[in-house]
Specification:
The protein is an alpha+beta fold. The protein is 25% helix and 20% strand. It is built from 5 helices and 12 strands. It binds ligand MTE and molybdenum atom.
């Protein structure tokens, strides 16, 4: 009979139980100790110092992912789906007269005290960019799709939006930026908040074309947000109003329990 198959004597059993409970007990003591350390540590911004350190680490990681250096993968035109899925009709339920539409930009920061009303002609006059990328919905589907429009950063530089100073905004001067951009549909039926670093990311665009043609109504005509660094929920269709603030703008899906950032 080999050693492994031999039955253990009661003494050997006891010895094993003793070791097992000893290891278990030590593990438990470590868990309790760490919990007490976290609970007794000084608080910083409402969280104990050890937890705050973890949050700050996550924040730095997040900022790195949002930086200009981190680009979402792009695809050749041939990879774009000819028929793009439609998902989400909130804020799109009434008909839209795209000829009469204007984008309202609420006042914020130095230099502007009036609401700006921009026409599609003014927006189309800005440098045009295109992107083909894998659009991802939080519900679990994704699709390579092709969008055209103006980079948000070019738009913001032209109209001097999002900065406190009233100068062109830049991720190189985060202290001069409002923390968020808020967007909502003309009827207020759908609304999102976007952190400024992500809004100013080089792949974020105010899109007016899909597959080389003007946006269809159910895909956000005349103007929608395309923000490849975030899930579909943040890609608001049919933008009516834009504003900038340090407080988190109301966000339709965050109010319904989804992650506010919805970053990828
Ligand atoms: N106005 C508006 N924008 C919206 C939504 C919506 O319900 N209303 N749904 C969002 C969600 S969850 C997704 S996945 C994308 C879908 O974009 P698509 O219809 O062009 O595929 O739009 C986003 N933007
Ligand atoms: Mo979605």
């Amino acid at each position: 009979m080999s050693n492994e198959q031999r039955e253990l004597t009661p003494r050997e059993w006891n010895r094993r139980k003793f070791i097992a409970f000893g290891v278990f007990g030590m593990f438990g003591a470590v868990v309790v100790g760490v919990r007490q350390w976290i609970a007794s540590a000084d608080k910083k911004d409402g969280a104990s110092a050890p937890l705050r350190a973890v949050l700050e680490f996550n924040d730095r990681l997040n900022q790195t992912y949002k930086s200009d250096a981190h680009l979402v993968k792009e695809y050749p035109l041939s990879a774009a789906a000819p028929k793009v899925r439609v998902n989400g009709y909130d804020g799109l339920k009434s008909p839209i007269d795209t000829a009469a539409w204007t984008l309202a930009v609420l006042p914020s920061g130095a230099g502007r005290s009036d609401t700006l009303h921009l026409t599609m002609d003014e927006i189309r006059a800005l440098p045009k960019t295109e992107i083909v990328y894998d659009f991802k919905c939080i519900e679990g589907w994704s699709q390579v799709s092709h969008w055209g429009g103006v980079r948000f950063r070019d738009f913001a530089a032209k109209y001097l939006l999002g900065s406190r100073s009233g100068h062109a905004p830049s991720n190189d001067r985060p202290e001069d930026l409002y923390r968020y951009m808020g967007l909502r549909t003309p009827d207020g039926g759908y609304y999102v908040g976007i952190d400024m670093a992500s809004a100013l990311h080089p792949q974020t665009i105010l899109a007016y074309e899909m597959n080389g043609a003007p946006l269809p109504a159910n895909q956000g005509a005349p103007l929608r947000l395309i923000i490849p660094t975030k899930y579909g929920v943040k890609n608001l269709k049919r933008i009516g109003t834009m504003f900038f603030s340090d407080e988190r703008p109301p966000d339709f899906w965050a109010e319904r329990g989804y992650d506010y950032d919805a970053g990828l």
